[in-house]
């Protein structure tokens, strides 16, 4: 393969990596990309996160689950971090790649904080890892919570196992939570906070943990796994990158995948995973949980369209649903500036399962 062809192939990986699918020379089956991620999303800003963690007091380790999967966890204690955060949107770099443009700074606490008012377990999206939610961890820790970020199976520093589109991952969360509570890491009322794939996982885990979970925040979750795949893949294939090399790479990806029969692709993934993706019903899990549930979805989401959020809300009438105009699948989880403090306050409301009190609610309702 020529250097130029190899470069186009790597760019193709980046183009589909945004959605959680990666093209590679040795694995050309789209269903294989549904079975396990092909790498790390190009949205990950590892140097930024690594630099922040280098100055941040934290503890980490692994818990082995009932399936024999080693799940990596990282705990951050409450304290006065004086977090300074700004989200500036999506930025196209010189290489034509898309990055989340944000600024994050904080001051490591000079003295130990008070005892945690509770624990928040954070669950990331597909092709991400727990550290990708570091700004949320700091926002909750600053509000008095101990935060525990988990790397889901097949992601980050955790071990491998058959993907479950939230179901098997939820079993891992259950095992990790109970093991960490026995070690004294999980203290006080427990809340789950998840984004996208992690949001679906949080809703399944809350159902399985029952009264052990007080509150769940599910941001940009899908309602049905098969439906989410059918919605997301065509959207990503329609993407038009900014620079010519990535456009050429995307043409290669479209040539390979655009004419795939998605029903056949999903059926093949079902066989590989011993699952029925069309029967993975996140709405039923949201309805079954005894916890207070907050569902948040960006109205402009094209990866997991807002119809999924509305279906979840219809399936779980006790849940509170907030639909935010002007935000999409990538931008909404970055809006710690708007949602960090209000969500932390919502977590503190005990048995009162009220709506989210946030200024953006007025914007949402008036649009």
CATH class of the largest domain: Alpha Beta
Category from helices, strands and their pairing: alpha/beta
Order of helices and strands: HHHEEEEEHEHEHEHHHHEHEHH
Shape: globular
Report, as a whole number of angstroms, the end-to-end distance: 52 Å
Strand order, main sheet: write it out.
Answer: 1-2-6-5-7-8-9-10
Q: CATH topology of the largest domain, which one?
A: Rossmann fold
Number of strands: 10
- Using the CA coordinates, give the radius of gyration: 20 Å
Name of the CATH superfamily of the largest domain:
Alpha/Beta hydrolase fold, catalytic domain
- The averaged pLDDT comes out at 83
**How many domain regions?**
2
Instruction: Report the helical percentage.
Output: 25-40%
Biggest sheet details: 8 strands, mixed
Strand % is 15-25%
> What is the CATH architecture annotation of the largest domain?
3-Layer(aba) Sandwich
Unreliable sequence segments: 1-28, 362-367
Put simply, the count of helices is: 13
């Amino acid at each position: 393969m020529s250097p130029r062809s190899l470069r186009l192939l790597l760019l193709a990986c980046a183009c589909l990596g945004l959605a959680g699918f990666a093209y590679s020379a040795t694995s050309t089956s789209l269903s294989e990309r549904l079975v396990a991620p092909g790498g790390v999303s190009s949205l990950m800003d590892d140097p930024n996160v690594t630099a922040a963690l280098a100055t941040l007091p934290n503890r980490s380790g692994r818990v082995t689950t009932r399936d024999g999967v080693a799940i990596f966890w990282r705990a951050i204690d409450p304290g006065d971090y004086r977090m300074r955060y700004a989200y500036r949107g999506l930025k196209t770099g010189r290489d034509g790649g898309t990055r989340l443009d944000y600024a994050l700074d904080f001051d490591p606490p000079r003295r130990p904080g008070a005892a945690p008012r509770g624990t928040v377990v954070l669950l990331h999206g597909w092709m991400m890892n727990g550290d990708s939610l570091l700004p949320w961890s700091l926002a909750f820790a600053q509000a008095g919570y101990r935060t525990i970020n988990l790397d889901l199976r097949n992601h980050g520093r955790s071990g491998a196992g058959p993907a479950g589109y939230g179901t098997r991952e939820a079993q891992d969360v259950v095992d990790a939570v109970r093991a960490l509570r026995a070690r004294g890491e999980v203290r006080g009322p427990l809340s789950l906070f998840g984004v996208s794939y992690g949001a679906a996982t949080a809703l399944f885990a809350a159902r399985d943990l029952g009264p052990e979970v007080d509150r769940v925040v599910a941001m940009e979750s899908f309602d049905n796994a098969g439906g989410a795949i059918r919605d997301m893949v065509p959207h990503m294939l329609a993407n038009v990158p900014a620079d010519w090399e990535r456009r050429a790479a995307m043409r290669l990806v479209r040539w390979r995948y655009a004419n795939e029969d998605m029903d056949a692709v999903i059926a093949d993934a079902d066989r590989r995973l011993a699952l029925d993706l069309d029967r993975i019903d996140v709405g039923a899990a949201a309805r079954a949980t005894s916890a207070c549930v907050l569902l948040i979805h960006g109205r402009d989401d094209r990866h997991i369209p807002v119809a999924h959020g509305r279906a979840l809300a219809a399936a779980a009438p006790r849940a509170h649903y907030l639909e935010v105009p002007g935000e999409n699948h990538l931008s909404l989880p970055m809006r710690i500036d708007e949602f960090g403090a209000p969500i932390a306050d919502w977590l503190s409301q005990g048995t009162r399962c009220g709506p989210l009190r946030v200024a953006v609610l007025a914007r949402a309702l008036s649009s």
